[in-house]
Amino acid sequence: MTEPQELMQYIGENLKKYRLQKGMRQEELCDGLCSVSQLSKIENGKAQVKAEHLKIMAERLGVAVEQLRTTDALRDELREGIELTKKATVAQNYKQAFERIRSVVARAKQAGYQDLHAEAVLYECYLLNMTERKYQAALEKLRETLTDGGEFDPITRADLLIEYGRAYAFTGDLVEAFRQYLQADTLLQRVEPVAEDLYARVLYRIGDCMFYMQNWRTGYRYSDQSAKVAEALGKHQYRIRSKSMQAAFANKLGRPEEARKIMEELLQEAQSNNLIHEIGTLENNIGCWYMEQGDLTTAHQYLQRSMTSFELLNDRYVMCQPLMNLAEWAQKANHLEASLQYADQVLELVREGGLLGLHYLLEGRMLALHAKTYGLLGDEERMTAFYEQALELFDQNRAVIPAYDVCVLLADFYYERSNPRALPLYKQAVSYNRIIHELGVKK
């Protein structure tokens, strides 16, 4: 980094630090000087500020101009602490990683560095989720940060809300998770787009949340924005992931040809750059696309390729994706025993443990697929038993959207056979639908 670039970085970081310490919004600091988006670029070290504007900003913040132009030794130390935490994580020295990041969390909060405080909290929650599966502890940490952590800028607060929602999802409360995602969505709608890493990441994460909520149109918008910001930043891999998500949303919106074109172009890019995870994901998604179009032969070819790609990563979670879709493919192809076997492989991976908290969605989906397969085999007893298991699992975790679908299916089945179980199931479906409606999803 050259000296002028370092100075831009110092000025930007100091402007943001003192603004947040003062509880001042960006609009207040830059009023009559520049746009909010320009101030965001300045605060992120991406643009220079005019000397006369810097003087006025310093006056508004109640500090000397020189304080804005000099490096902050403590801030540099805390930033280094985050980097050392990441290195300790890679080395699987989790004890040291926790000690370092918790020190950064406490010191950053005390010093009023809201951006570093938020970044450190998010990384501590990542460690709690990934290394110890302490989902409740992560939930408590995020609740405390959002309640007592001080004033965060809208993008950072949205990032924390998304992680807060994920924590709820991991602990088995998708309804509350969705409510946090909606709060993040409301915040981001008021943010003027800026070309920065955090903004691109938050857009991608909220798009992923919208997929779980089945809010296809909003998700398409976020994934499109994320791809554009990633391209502006030169983040090649991030752009591919964002465009891949956009293709999935386009397909859900009834634009299959747009989806196919995007995915095939991205697959060529991923192959050219040897991005194994992206290759496997795109092969899986293209396989699903062909399966929806009724071309089961081509679908099977792509899904098998996805399996081969993901085997190179030795990641059980990603292996679940093509296995689940192969189970569905086998069912559609009337290879019913093979469908049961594929689904059993997914259930085995899930029940072995080690997957993040959303494993109950995978397990529930496979139980429901088992039920449908047994129905096709004419075994109604096993069919209803598996549907009941899936419904119980979804209900326990407040996964109201899949719970509603299974509940209605079961209720219809019992009603056709004059079984009194139908009535309480219909009432249960109505209660799910009420919650779904509150979340803005139509059923």
UniProtKB/TrEMBL annotation:
Stored PROSITE patterns: HTH_CROC1
A molecular-function term among this protein's GO annotations: DNA binding
Domain of life, per lineage: Bacteria
InterPro entries membership: Cro/C1-type_HTH, HTH-type_regulator_Rgg, Lambda_DNA-bd_dom_sf, TPR-like_helical_dom_sf, TPR_rpt
Every HTH cro/C1-type domain range: 15-68
Database matches in PANTHER family: TRANSCRIPTIONAL ACTIVATOR, TRANSCRIPTIONAL REGULATOR-RELATED
Protein name per Swiss-Prot or TrEMBL: HTH cro/C1-type domain-containing protein
Organism, as annotated: Tumebacillus flagellatus
Taxonomic placement: Bacteria, Bacillati, Bacillota, Bacilli, Bacillales
